[in-house]
Every structure is written in C-alpha cells, then in structure tokens.
Amino acid sequence: MRRYLGSLVLAAVVLVALWFLQQRDDAPPVPVQPSATSSAPTAAAPVPVPVTPTPAAATPTGTTSTSSSTPQAPAVNPVEPEGDPVDPTAPATARDEGQAKQFTAYAKAAEAFMADFARPAATVTEQQWWSKVSGHLSEQAVTAYEGTDPQNVPFTEVTGPATIVPSDAPSQLLAIARVPTDSGWYRVEMTTTADGIRITRASPESGGRR
C-alpha cells in the first residue's frame, strides 16, 4: 500500500512541476529599464599613428632652394622702341606742295579766329564780339560757344604765328594748330567744310605758358 502511495505522490509532484514550468514559459518577458546613471556608449577615440618626418634635402649654404614643380619665367630683354619719340609740339611736315599750301591755309584760319576770339576791350559789346567769332565756327561749335562771355576769355592777343602739328586724322578732315597768346599756347582744331575751313574747338594747351 505504501509503495503505491509513494508512486502517486511522486507522479503528482512531477505533474505540478511540469505545470509550473509551462506557466513560466508562457509569461511575456518583463522589460528592463535602463539605469538613470548609465550613459550612452562612447566611440573609442582613434589612436594617433606616429608619422616619421621625411628629412628635407640639404641645401648648400648661400643658395636658395626652388621647387622643381614651379615653372621659371624666361628672362625678358628690354626692347628699345624704334625711331625717335614724336614731339607733340613739333610742326607737322607736309608730304608734298599741295599739303604744304593746305597747312598754310589752316594756320592762317587759326590765327584769324584767335585774334577775333581774344578778350575785347570794355567798349566792345558782346554782340559785336560774337558776330565776328561765330563766322569762324562750325555749326556744332556755334552751339557750344554761343552765350560765352567775352570778358571771361583768358588772353587778349595772339603773340606769334600758328603752326600745324601732327594729327592721326587725314588733314582734309581735321587739322590742329598751336597758337601762342599772351596767356599761353592754345590748340585750335579745324575741319574743312563746303563753306571753307571752320573751327571746331579751341582750348588752352596743358603745360602752361611757353
């Protein structure tokens, strides 16, 4: 009888143990909260690798080392300009007799204009002065010089003959004359129109008196 009871008790204990293990496996896992004092994992700092410097090539004393990758500019020898420099105040040289006569006509026209353009005496009215001056001017110059007060003209007389100076423009289109006055040199620009030689501009020459 005891033997049977012992077997029943052992079987009951085994059944209870199996049931307990089954209940434990079916239960959901309990999440684990991280500790407040824990910190995020930190990536390991890279370990510096020692670098052995490459010894520089020895440079002889008193010389300068130059990188071979830098191109060297070739030496440039100064080139002397050909011919003598042109003097902007030197008289122009006529190429033939016809141009020489043209230069003479331009010079006389410049002298005549400057003589009439000079500051007149106080007894000469502005209208009298302008009636003589305007006859020398081109249409564009008439518009530019109209209304000029003759008492503001710096010079009072022409002191010598005019000379024609070199110009890049053809002489039949533009000529430039230097005219001396008691206030310094003036440059007078002229052109040839259907009505003859006309003055397009007159201005003091830079550089002061001569």
Describe the structure.
It is a single chain. The protein has a domain at 97-204: Nuclear Transport Factor 2, Chain: A, CATH 3.10.450. The chain has 210 residues and is an alpha+beta fold. A hairpin with a 2-residue loop joins strand 3 (184-193) and strand 4. It has helices spanning 2-26, 97-117, 126-133, 139-145, and strands spanning 163-165, 175-181, 184-193, 196-204. The radius of gyration is 54 Å and the shape is rod-shaped.
What would the keywords be for this entry?
4 strands, 210 residues, rod-shaped, alpha+beta
What's the helix and strand layout?
Blueprint: H1 2-26, H2 97-117, H3 126-133, H4 139-145, E1 163-165, E2 175-181, E3 184-193, E4 196-204
Antiparallel strand pairs: 1-2, 2-3, 3-4
Instruction: Examine the coordinates and then state which fold CATH places here, giving the name of the CATH topology of the domain at 97-204.
Output: Nuclear Transport Factor 2, Chain: A
Gyration radius, to the nearest Å? Answer: 54 Å
Give the strand tally: 4
Q: Which band does the percent of strand residues land in?
A: 5-15%
| Unreliable parts | 32-52, 54-60, 62-68, 76-81
End-to-end separation: 158 Å
Label the overall shape.
Answer: rod-shaped
Helix share bin: 25-40%
Top-tier CATH class of the domain at 97-204: Alpha Beta
SS content category: alpha+beta
Level-2 CATH architecture of the domain at 97-204: Roll
How confident overall, as mean pLDDT? 75
Cross-sheet strand order for the largest sheet: 1-2-3-4
Largest sheet: 4 strands, antiparallel
Query: What is the tally of helical segments?
Result: 4
Order of helices and strands: HHHHEEEE
